[in-house]
Structure prediction request, 367 residues.
Amino acid sequence: MRIDRVETFSTQFVGFVRITTSTGATGLGQVSTYNSDITSTVLHRQVAPWVLGVEFDDIDALTDKVIEREHKFPGSYMKRALGGLDTAIWDFRGKEAGLPVASLLGGTPGPLRAYASSMKRDITPNAEAERFRRLQGEFGFDAFKFRVAAEYGHDVDEWRGRTEEIIPTIRKALGDGVALLVDANSGFSPKRAIEVGRMLEDNGVEHFEEPCLYWELEQTREVTDALDIAVTGGEQDCEIPTWRHMIDMRAVDIVQPDILYLGGISRTLRVCRMAQAAGLPITPHSANLGLVTLFTMHLLRAIEGAGKYLEFSIEGEDYYPWQEGLFVKSPYDVREGQVLVSDEPGWGVEVDPEWLAKSRYQMSERA
Prediction:
Protein backbone atom coordinates (compact mmCIF):
# COMPACT_ATOMS: atom_id res chain seq x y z
CA MET A 1 0.00 0.00 0.00
CA ARG A 2 0.99 3.66 -0.28
CA ILE A 3 -0.09 6.62 1.83
CA ASP A 4 -0.57 9.85 -0.10
CA ARG A 5 -2.07 12.08 2.63
CA VAL A 6 -1.96 12.34 6.41
CA GLU A 7 -4.45 14.59 8.21
CA THR A 8 -4.76 15.32 11.92
CA PHE A 9 -7.60 16.80 13.94
CA SER A 10 -6.43 17.66 17.43
CA THR A 11 -6.87 19.48 20.70
CA GLN A 12 -4.47 19.56 23.63
CA PHE A 13 -6.11 16.42 24.98
CA VAL A 14 -6.89 14.14 22.04
CA GLY A 15 -6.00 13.92 18.36
CA PHE A 16 -7.33 11.83 15.50
CA VAL A 17 -5.47 10.83 12.34
CA ARG A 18 -6.86 10.14 8.87
CA ILE A 19 -4.72 8.59 6.19
CA THR A 20 -5.63 8.51 2.52
CA THR A 21 -4.02 5.86 0.33
CA SER A 22 -3.11 5.97 -3.33
CA THR A 23 -6.50 4.41 -4.13
CA GLY A 24 -8.41 7.13 -2.26
CA ALA A 25 -9.38 4.79 0.58
CA THR A 26 -9.04 6.11 4.15
CA GLY A 27 -8.24 4.87 7.63
CA LEU A 28 -8.87 6.41 11.06
CA GLY A 29 -6.44 6.33 13.96
CA GLN A 30 -5.51 8.31 17.03
CA VAL A 31 -2.32 9.74 18.46
CA SER A 32 -1.97 9.36 22.19
CA THR A 33 -3.93 11.59 24.52
CA TYR A 34 -2.35 14.49 26.46
CA ASN A 35 -0.53 17.20 24.51
CA SER A 36 -2.01 15.65 21.40
CA ASP A 37 -1.60 18.92 19.52
CA ILE A 38 2.18 18.67 20.03
CA THR A 39 2.13 15.00 19.05
CA SER A 40 0.23 15.85 15.86
CA THR A 41 2.92 18.36 14.93
CA VAL A 42 5.57 15.67 15.50
CA LEU A 43 3.58 13.38 13.21
CA HIS A 44 3.61 15.92 10.38
CA ARG A 45 7.17 17.16 10.95
CA GLN A 46 9.03 13.93 11.70
CA VAL A 47 6.89 10.98 10.63
CA ALA A 48 4.98 11.99 7.50
CA PRO A 49 8.08 12.90 5.42
CA TRP A 50 9.37 9.32 5.74
CA VAL A 51 6.10 7.53 4.92
CA LEU A 52 4.29 9.60 2.28
CA GLY A 53 4.54 7.99 -1.13
CA VAL A 54 6.39 4.93 0.19
CA GLU A 55 5.20 1.51 -0.94
CA PHE A 56 5.06 -0.88 2.02
CA ASP A 57 3.36 -3.97 3.39
CA ASP A 58 5.17 -4.36 6.73
CA ILE A 59 4.13 -1.76 9.34
CA ASP A 60 7.03 -2.69 11.62
CA ALA A 61 9.54 -2.06 8.85
CA LEU A 62 7.90 1.30 8.08
CA THR A 63 7.89 2.52 11.68
CA ASP A 64 11.43 1.27 12.29
CA LYS A 65 12.55 3.27 9.28
CA VAL A 66 10.98 6.41 10.76
CA ILE A 67 12.68 5.81 14.12
CA GLU A 68 16.05 5.31 12.43
CA ARG A 69 15.69 8.38 10.24
CA GLU A 70 14.78 10.45 13.31
CA HIS A 71 17.40 8.80 15.53
CA LYS A 72 18.22 12.07 17.29
CA PHE A 73 14.66 12.22 18.62
CA PRO A 74 13.84 8.94 20.38
CA GLY A 75 11.26 8.77 23.12
CA SER A 76 7.64 9.29 23.92
CA TYR A 77 6.45 11.92 21.44
CA MET A 78 7.78 9.97 18.47
CA LYS A 79 6.05 6.78 19.63
CA ARG A 80 2.79 8.60 20.39
CA ALA A 81 2.83 10.01 16.86
CA LEU A 82 3.60 6.62 15.32
CA GLY A 83 0.61 5.22 17.23
CA GLY A 84 -1.67 7.51 15.22
CA LEU A 85 -0.20 6.35 11.92
CA ASP A 86 -0.24 2.67 12.86
CA THR A 87 -3.84 2.60 14.09
CA ALA A 88 -5.04 4.42 10.96
CA ILE A 89 -3.31 1.80 8.79
CA TRP A 90 -5.04 -1.01 10.69
CA ASP A 91 -8.42 0.69 10.22
CA PHE A 92 -7.77 1.01 6.48
CA ARG A 93 -6.82 -2.67 6.24
CA GLY A 94 -9.91 -3.75 8.12
CA LYS A 95 -12.19 -1.70 5.90
CA GLU A 96 -10.51 -3.03 2.76
CA ALA A 97 -10.94 -6.62 3.97
CA GLY A 98 -14.45 -6.04 5.35
CA LEU A 99 -13.27 -7.34 8.74
CA PRO A 100 -12.82 -5.94 12.24
CA VAL A 101 -9.19 -5.42 13.28
CA ALA A 102 -9.57 -8.23 15.83
CA SER A 103 -10.12 -10.64 12.95
CA LEU A 104 -7.12 -9.29 11.03
CA LEU A 105 -5.06 -10.05 14.12
CA GLY A 106 -6.27 -13.65 14.16
CA GLY A 107 -9.07 -13.31 16.70
CA THR A 108 -12.83 -12.83 16.65
CA PRO A 109 -15.34 -10.17 17.67
CA GLY A 110 -17.13 -10.79 20.96
CA PRO A 111 -17.35 -9.87 24.64
CA LEU A 112 -14.61 -8.95 27.09
CA ARG A 113 -14.72 -8.84 30.87
CA ALA A 114 -13.89 -5.33 32.07
CA TYR A 115 -12.67 -3.95 35.35
CA ALA A 116 -13.94 -0.55 36.44
CA SER A 117 -10.87 1.66 36.72
CA SER A 118 -10.92 4.67 39.05
CA MET A 119 -8.46 7.49 38.44
CA LYS A 120 -9.32 9.47 41.57
CA ARG A 121 -7.19 10.10 44.62
CA ASP A 122 -9.13 13.13 45.89
CA ILE A 123 -12.00 10.87 46.93
CA THR A 124 -12.54 9.47 50.39
CA PRO A 125 -12.49 5.70 50.87
CA ASN A 126 -16.18 5.63 51.77
CA ALA A 127 -17.15 7.73 48.74
CA GLU A 128 -15.11 5.46 46.47
CA ALA A 129 -16.75 2.38 47.95
CA GLU A 130 -20.19 3.89 47.42
CA ARG A 131 -19.35 4.75 43.82
CA PHE A 132 -18.19 1.19 43.18
CA ARG A 133 -21.39 -0.27 44.65
CA ARG A 134 -23.47 1.97 42.41
CA LEU A 135 -21.51 0.95 39.30
CA GLN A 136 -21.74 -2.70 40.30
CA GLY A 137 -25.51 -2.45 40.37
CA GLU A 138 -25.83 -0.32 37.25
CA PHE A 139 -23.34 -2.04 34.93
CA GLY A 140 -22.61 -5.39 36.55
CA PHE A 141 -18.88 -4.86 37.10
CA ASP A 142 -17.33 -7.62 39.18
CA ALA A 143 -13.79 -6.17 39.25
CA PHE A 144 -12.57 -2.72 40.35
CA LYS A 145 -9.28 -0.83 40.51
CA PHE A 146 -8.61 2.01 42.94
CA ARG A 147 -5.65 4.25 43.77
CA VAL A 148 -3.25 4.19 46.71
CA ALA A 149 -0.29 6.46 47.56
CA ALA A 150 0.16 9.88 46.04
CA GLU A 151 1.19 9.86 42.41
CA TYR A 152 5.02 9.79 42.38
CA GLY A 153 4.66 10.44 46.09
CA HIS A 154 7.96 9.05 47.46
CA ASP A 155 6.06 7.33 50.29
CA VAL A 156 3.80 10.34 50.92
CA ASP A 157 0.10 9.51 50.77
CA GLU A 158 -2.59 11.70 49.21
CA TRP A 159 -3.45 12.43 52.82
CA ARG A 160 -2.18 10.75 55.94
CA GLY A 161 -3.60 7.26 56.41
CA ARG A 162 -5.62 7.11 53.18
CA THR A 163 -3.90 3.97 51.84
CA GLU A 164 -4.37 2.07 55.11
CA GLU A 165 -8.03 3.08 55.18
CA ILE A 166 -9.11 2.53 51.59
CA ILE A 167 -7.87 -1.05 51.20
CA PRO A 168 -10.10 -2.69 53.86
CA THR A 169 -12.93 -0.22 53.20
CA ILE A 170 -13.29 -1.26 49.56
CA ARG A 171 -13.00 -4.96 50.37
CA LYS A 172 -15.62 -4.77 53.13
CA ALA A 173 -18.02 -2.76 50.97
CA LEU A 174 -17.85 -5.06 47.93
CA GLY A 175 -17.38 -8.45 49.59
CA ASP A 176 -15.18 -11.38 48.73
CA GLY A 177 -16.85 -12.14 45.39
CA VAL A 178 -15.42 -9.07 43.67
CA ALA A 179 -11.90 -8.88 42.22
CA LEU A 180 -9.85 -5.90 43.42
CA LEU A 181 -6.88 -4.23 41.74
CA VAL A 182 -4.73 -1.35 43.01
CA ASP A 183 -2.55 1.26 41.27
CA ALA A 184 0.19 3.17 43.11
CA ASN A 185 1.40 5.24 40.12
CA SER A 186 5.07 5.05 41.16
CA GLY A 187 4.20 6.22 44.66
CA PHE A 188 6.38 4.05 46.89
CA SER A 189 9.92 3.06 47.72
CA PRO A 190 10.49 -0.71 47.62
CA LYS A 191 10.33 -0.98 51.43
CA ARG A 192 7.00 0.86 51.66
CA ALA A 193 5.62 -0.92 48.59
CA ILE A 194 6.28 -4.28 50.23
CA GLU A 195 4.51 -3.12 53.42
CA VAL A 196 1.49 -2.02 51.40
CA GLY A 197 1.66 -5.20 49.33
CA ARG A 198 1.26 -7.25 52.50
CA MET A 199 -1.89 -5.28 53.33
CA LEU A 200 -3.19 -5.91 49.83
CA GLU A 201 -2.53 -9.64 50.16
CA ASP A 202 -4.33 -9.73 53.52
CA ASN A 203 -7.37 -8.13 51.88
CA GLY A 204 -7.45 -10.39 48.82
CA VAL A 205 -6.29 -7.76 46.29
CA GLU A 206 -4.84 -9.52 43.24
CA HIS A 207 -3.08 -6.79 41.22
CA PHE A 208 -0.51 -4.22 42.45
CA GLU A 209 0.30 -1.79 39.67
CA GLU A 210 3.43 0.36 39.31
CA PRO A 211 4.42 0.29 42.99
CA CYS A 212 7.78 2.10 42.51
CA LEU A 213 9.25 4.66 40.12
CA TYR A 214 8.54 2.94 36.83
CA TRP A 215 11.94 3.63 35.29
CA GLU A 216 13.71 1.99 38.24
CA LEU A 217 13.12 -1.60 37.13
CA GLU A 218 15.31 -3.05 39.86
CA GLN A 219 13.07 -1.44 42.49
CA THR A 220 9.98 -3.00 40.94
CA ARG A 221 11.64 -6.41 40.74
CA GLU A 222 12.51 -6.18 44.45
CA VAL A 223 8.81 -5.79 45.21
CA THR A 224 7.82 -8.52 42.76
CA ASP A 225 10.27 -10.97 44.34
CA ALA A 226 9.02 -10.20 47.86
CA LEU A 227 5.26 -10.51 47.32
CA ASP A 228 2.78 -13.18 46.31
CA ILE A 229 0.38 -10.61 44.81
CA ALA A 230 0.85 -9.99 41.07
CA VAL A 231 2.99 -6.88 40.55
CA THR A 232 2.25 -5.19 37.25
CA GLY A 233 3.60 -2.36 35.12
CA GLY A 234 4.82 -1.02 31.81
CA GLU A 235 2.20 1.52 30.77
CA GLN A 236 4.75 4.33 30.38
CA ASP A 237 7.42 2.32 28.56
CA CYS A 238 7.76 2.96 24.84
CA GLU A 239 11.16 1.52 23.87
CA ILE A 240 11.40 -2.11 22.74
CA PRO A 241 14.82 -2.67 24.42
CA THR A 242 13.33 -1.50 27.74
CA TRP A 243 10.52 -4.00 27.34
CA ARG A 244 12.97 -6.77 26.51
CA HIS A 245 14.97 -5.99 29.64
CA MET A 246 11.86 -5.72 31.83
CA ILE A 247 10.58 -9.09 30.67
CA ASP A 248 13.95 -10.86 30.73
CA MET A 249 14.57 -9.75 34.33
CA ARG A 250 10.94 -10.52 35.25
CA ALA A 251 10.50 -7.14 36.88
CA VAL A 252 6.71 -7.65 36.80
CA ASP A 253 4.25 -10.53 36.86
CA ILE A 254 1.81 -8.95 34.37
CA VAL A 255 2.79 -6.62 31.51
CA GLN A 256 0.71 -3.53 30.76
CA PRO A 257 1.70 -1.85 27.49
CA ASP A 258 -0.35 1.14 26.35
CA ILE A 259 -0.95 0.80 22.61
CA LEU A 260 -0.71 4.54 21.95
CA TYR A 261 2.19 5.29 24.31
CA LEU A 262 4.14 2.40 22.76
CA GLY A 263 3.60 3.34 19.12
CA GLY A 264 0.63 1.35 17.83
CA ILE A 265 -0.76 -2.14 17.43
CA SER A 266 2.24 -3.54 15.55
CA ARG A 267 4.80 -2.46 18.15
CA THR A 268 2.51 -3.69 20.93
CA LEU A 269 2.35 -7.10 19.25
CA ARG A 270 6.14 -7.29 19.55
CA VAL A 271 5.83 -6.83 23.31
CA CYS A 272 3.01 -9.36 23.43
CA ARG A 273 5.20 -11.96 21.74
CA MET A 274 7.98 -11.35 24.25
CA ALA A 275 5.54 -11.66 27.14
CA GLN A 276 3.99 -14.82 25.71
CA ALA A 277 7.41 -16.45 25.37
CA ALA A 278 8.11 -15.61 29.02
CA GLY A 279 4.70 -16.85 30.19
CA LEU A 280 3.58 -13.42 31.41
CA PRO A 281 -0.07 -12.31 31.03
CA ILE A 282 -0.89 -9.12 29.11
CA THR A 283 -3.39 -6.64 30.56
CA PRO A 284 -2.85 -3.40 28.59
CA HIS A 285 -3.22 0.08 30.00
CA SER A 286 -6.28 1.86 28.56
CA ALA A 287 -7.25 4.53 31.03
CA ASN A 288 -9.59 6.79 29.04
CA LEU A 289 -12.45 6.56 26.59
CA GLY A 290 -10.74 7.99 23.56
CA LEU A 291 -9.88 5.24 21.07
CA VAL A 292 -7.14 3.53 23.09
CA THR A 293 -9.71 1.39 24.90
CA LEU A 294 -11.29 0.32 21.60
CA PHE A 295 -7.88 -0.55 20.18
CA THR A 296 -7.17 -2.59 23.31
CA MET A 297 -10.49 -4.42 23.00
CA HIS A 298 -9.58 -5.65 19.52
CA LEU A 299 -6.09 -6.66 20.67
CA LEU A 300 -7.37 -8.64 23.66
CA ARG A 301 -9.85 -10.56 21.47
CA ALA A 302 -6.93 -11.72 19.31
CA ILE A 303 -3.74 -12.40 21.27
CA GLU A 304 -2.59 -15.44 23.17
CA GLY A 305 -1.69 -14.65 26.77
CA ALA A 306 -4.36 -11.99 27.24
CA GLY A 307 -5.03 -11.20 30.90
CA LYS A 308 -8.38 -11.60 32.58
CA TYR A 309 -9.60 -8.05 32.07
CA LEU A 310 -9.94 -4.97 29.94
CA GLU A 311 -9.19 -1.75 31.84
CA PHE A 312 -12.28 0.45 31.51
CA SER A 313 -12.24 4.01 32.83
CA ILE A 314 -15.24 5.00 34.92
CA GLU A 315 -14.41 8.71 34.88
CA GLY A 316 -16.85 10.97 33.11
CA GLU A 317 -17.17 14.63 32.26
CA ASP A 318 -16.08 15.80 35.72
CA TYR A 319 -12.65 14.18 35.27
CA TYR A 320 -12.18 13.90 31.50
CA PRO A 321 -14.39 16.62 29.96
CA TRP A 322 -12.60 16.19 26.63
CA GLN A 323 -14.14 12.70 26.24
CA GLU A 324 -17.59 14.18 25.60
CA GLY A 325 -18.88 14.37 22.02
CA LEU A 326 -16.03 12.52 20.33
CA PHE A 327 -17.99 9.93 18.38
CA VAL A 328 -21.16 9.71 16.32
CA LYS A 329 -21.95 6.56 18.30
CA SER A 330 -19.92 5.47 21.31
CA PRO A 331 -18.18 2.09 20.87
CA TYR A 332 -18.38 1.54 24.63
CA ASP A 333 -21.48 -0.16 26.01
CA VAL A 334 -20.99 -1.98 29.33
CA ARG A 335 -23.48 -4.72 30.12
CA GLU A 336 -23.10 -7.24 32.93
CA GLY A 337 -19.53 -6.11 33.40
CA GLN A 338 -18.59 -6.77 29.78
CA VAL A 339 -17.96 -4.76 26.62
CA LEU A 340 -18.42 -6.01 23.08
CA VAL A 341 -16.02 -5.93 20.14
CA SER A 342 -18.31 -5.52 17.13
CA ASP A 343 -17.96 -7.17 13.74
CA GLU A 344 -17.91 -3.83 11.88
CA PRO A 345 -14.93 -3.39 9.53
CA GLY A 346 -11.81 -1.71 10.86
CA TRP A 347 -12.39 -0.06 14.20
CA GLY A 348 -16.07 0.43 13.42
CA VAL A 349 -16.15 3.99 14.73
CA GLU A 350 -16.76 7.48 13.33
CA VAL A 351 -15.62 10.75 14.88
CA ASP A 352 -18.39 13.32 15.30
CA PRO A 353 -18.19 15.90 12.46
CA GLU A 354 -19.03 18.70 14.90
CA TRP A 355 -16.00 17.77 17.00
CA LEU A 356 -13.80 17.65 13.90
CA ALA A 357 -14.96 21.11 12.84
CA LYS A 358 -13.79 22.59 16.15
CA SER A 359 -10.39 20.87 16.18
CA ARG A 360 -7.00 22.06 14.93
CA TYR A 361 -6.49 20.73 11.40
CA GLN A 362 -3.13 19.88 9.81
CA MET A 363 -2.37 18.06 6.56
CA SER A 364 0.71 16.56 4.92
CA GLU A 365 0.49 15.34 1.33
CA ARG A 366 2.73 13.50 -1.10
CA ALA A 367 4.44 15.96 -3.42
